[in-house]
Fold these 3 entries.
Entry 1:
Amino acid sequence: KAPELPPAADQPTSYAELLGHGGETHQITTAALTMTTQQGLPIADGQNSLKAGPRGPILLEDFILREKIFHFDHERIPERVVHARGYGAHGVFELTDSLADFTTADVLNTTGQQTEVFVRFSTVAGNKGSFDLARDVRGFAVKLYTQQGNWDIVGNNIPVFFIQDAIKFPDLVHAVKDEPDRGFPQAQSAHDNFWDFASLSPEAWHMIMWQMSDRTIPRSFRTMEGFGVHSFRLVNAAGKSTFVKFHWKPRQGLQSVLWNEAVKINGADPDFHRRDMWQAIESGDFPQWELGVQLFDQETADKLPFDHLDATKLIPEEDIPVRIVGTMTLNRNVDNFFANTEQVAFCTQNIVPGVDFSDDPLLHGRNFSYLDTQLKRLGSPNFTHLPINAPRCPVMNFQQDGHMAMRNPVGRANYEPNSWGADGGPRENPEMGFNSFAAELPPTTKQRIRSETFADHYSQARLFFTSQLPIEQKHIGDALVFELSKVERVDIRARAVSHLRNIDGGLAATVADGLGMALPDAAKAAKPTQDLPPSP
Ligand code: HEM
């Protein structure tokens, strides 16, 4: 017997719906809309506390006052440790090209099948109350409520990342966020600590080229690309696995603002991006993205001039074209920001049968981190019971209790094995169930190490820079001069420019000139850069 499912819908969208009138135009009676306490007690006066006389002190026995204040006092939950400022919307994903040859994942098998989604866009560094148009990477997190469980593609609007190993993530985030002694800057990369960290981390410079480009000042959430970043794997019915990189391509096109515009918009309307998306959806102008995949096998991976398990590298679309397989449409705004956008919990670990991880060390760290942080942020291991996080397929297991449990085992048994027959609850299903696949490499001696195949830090940074139009290259140079001019320590400036020398000599000279400094020596490279063809 399947336990009752949690409600799939959000909170009621209107009081008429709440009262069971299905949203029809209805004259709601005063009695039906009587305000109550959290216990359901009708409230006669919620505006005046109980006092000892008109000018007397408040009386402790006023439980209505105490409940209201108590609840208010506990309204805040910790903001996300990163990606604190975000905005979400509901929608639908429709498969247009079946990947049945590559994966058993139901959501990627049947053309025309629609799957409910929730998407949250975010900035990374700024706090929850910061402004939308900071120069920053944008999060692009998609939750697909599939028939085989929730599948989260927790990506960014940039296809690569700053670091190669999750153990560096706390350092990166500390360096990116406000400085610990002074508590600023709250939302920008223009400060000594970030550039100190960056100038000491050669692996960061490919991402820095993207970060200094117009991509980090998008015109709208609707005009951003999304990337799953890591290599994942698709696994078919025969158990054959194929590497895959995920892409979201905006039907609205890719658009950015200029830095001067970003600065003005932040002052005039710090909510620019969330307002833009809310208004578009509200007016029926639903934003759409195409889901694309880059598929490749181990043989192809072995021939790439870099290691695809290194999250600071992308696979050029010229080498492995992106195959479009579906369309995502955002068509419904949240009706309660906190219940949906704040309480949603994405995790790279949320995959479905037919999808699997690669051995990317950054991905493995993420798989641990999200669940851990969400226990703290949402306060209970039962956060999957919240409607926004609850799967839309049956959930059956013997996990029970804990704070705020709304879904417990049903029937006689809460353990396995058991001999209670039909009343004994769910059983494993070896055919349909998720099978974790053997590691790609045979086990080896454990060591704290970085693979030599991760050592070329500059080739793709140069590839990105040279692929840009002259005006885009100028914007990157301008952004670097602006950001580095805010760095007070000149040795950090010099170290940063020394990395640019390994990326593009002309760019390094322009930035050094803009900063009024002599051109430093090139940074010592761990591995020589590849000879890349000149930009077209
Ligand atoms: C949050 C993307 C690397 C830890 C997020 C979010 C996104 C994201 C989009 C916001 C999710 C939301 O909207 O709720 C990425 C990408 C990464 C990356 C694309 C690299 C490819 C990492 C790493 C770690 C990490 C290496 C830690 C080892 C976190 C944490 C949160 C977060 C703790 C907050 C989650 C929450 O409170 O719900 N990340 N991230 N991320 N990320 Fe990452």
Entry 2:
Amino acid sequence: GVPEGGYSRVLLKLSGEAFAGGGALGVDPDVVQAIARQIAAVVRSGTQVAVVIGGGNFFRGAQLNERGMDRSRADYMGMLGTVMNCLALQDFCDRQGVETRVQTSISMGQVAEPYVPRRAIRHLEKGRVVIFGAGLGAPYFSTDTAAAQRALEIGCEVVLMAKGVDGVYDDDPRTNPDAKRFETLTHAEVLARGLKVADATAISLTQDNDLPIIVFNLLVEGNIARAVRGERIGTLVAS
Ligand code: UDP
């Protein structure tokens, strides 16, 4: 269950697609600013926030691979794309007056710190937002899996999986008006039904380590704070 008074340390997973706003490619500053505002409100309320951002608004390795590129090289391009999203979010968090550090799994000392888990924890304890870039630094993984791994390693109580819809449905709610939203699911149900919460590697990692996931709509202002307070929004995946 949710700890009394809400969660104290959370991992927020943002998809790259969210950063593009209405566009297909790149970063929409208005969207990133709105996300930063939500994060700042949560940090001010005393909850520690770590963030993992995807890169789907730039490159997805699997898609480039289908078009003939070497998979690993394409995946590295995907990872590098996530870092641009991290820098955009860092900028808007700074503007909100929230101190922010970016840590990347691929070293790039001019723009970010390397991923050092203990240092990340120290930043969080000082009220800084820590943004993890470049996924796990390894091809064939996703940023969903990176979110699960980072949450486990730095001791987050929950993964907040931000989406453009308000939870997990039994069918696509945009095409099927009768699609039903799940209030709760177990990790095993997500895997068995093939529900699109995250890829199977991420779900099995959270299942094995008893880490809950909340899938919720990022586009409703204040929703990150609601999820952090333990309000029942979206879909809770827990075993
Ligand atoms: N990626 C990777 N290893 C990781 C994380 C990401 O190779 O640990 C690559 C992969 O090619 C992926 C891309 O980076 O397609 C962008 O990440 P993702 O698809 O998870 O972004 P999202 O769908 O959340 O925007």
Entry 3:
Amino acid sequence: MRIVLVGPPGAGKGTQAAFLARNLSIPHISTGDLFRANISQQTELGKLAKSYMDAGNLVPDEVTIAMAKDRMEQPDAENGFLLDGFPRNVSQAEALDELLETENMQLDAVLDLEVPEDEVVKRIAGRRICRNDSSHVFHVTYKQPAKDGVCDVCGGELYQRNDDSEETVRTRLEVYHTQTEPIIDYYKAQGLVVTISALGKVEDVTARAMEALKRGE
Ligand code: AP5
Ligand code: ZN
């Protein structure tokens, strides 16, 4: 399956993607995680992306599309993938369509996670992620690690993301509404959108998502 996950910052895309990708046996491709890995390895791409990410703005399309394309062309993505955080505006969605068309591939679904803004703010405020791998995600109340400040998966140190400050979150939400939400209409026109509520327990949301994807097939 080829799936795109959309939803506001803090909706739980990364959290759900980990379970869905495992259930569906497809790789989880998160452009946010790819950028954060580049930042921690201090690559040129990481240096460029950091200033945009810290301000809550989108990294320029040209580098983002090239990075996503490169990842989607890896052998493990041949039979499907779950995209998390990409595409994030209409021009990225058009670039993805072009790429899929040249490969003679199609998207199966766009899963839209709906969460009210006050819940998103709570989820982001308490989020802690792992220094070794930003896909290891915890929450100070909703998903506590067994040992305070230590990642359950790899023992790495947990910290708060730079872009999770209150001011940056406000910018990220605005960017989501103005630049990312329009892709929902773009994909609705292709009949691909399935919307679910992302409220409630993580496992209940995963079950809802799996059900919706089955129905959408
Ligand atoms: P990215 O990393 O994609 O951030 P985002 O879209 O803002 O999403 P988040 O990672 O904040 O949230 P999430 O929905 O994954 O929630 P999570 O599962 O962590 O992008 C960051 C930046 O990178 C962008 O601002 C941009 O600069 C750049 N970028 C990335 N892609 C780009 C692109 N395509 N183009 C240009 N720039 C790009 O959950 C949040 C918290 O809630 C966690 O603590 C979790 O434990 C908790 N939680 C999850 N589910 C539940 C639940 N059901 N109940 C209670 N708590 C829950
Ligand atoms: Zn870890």
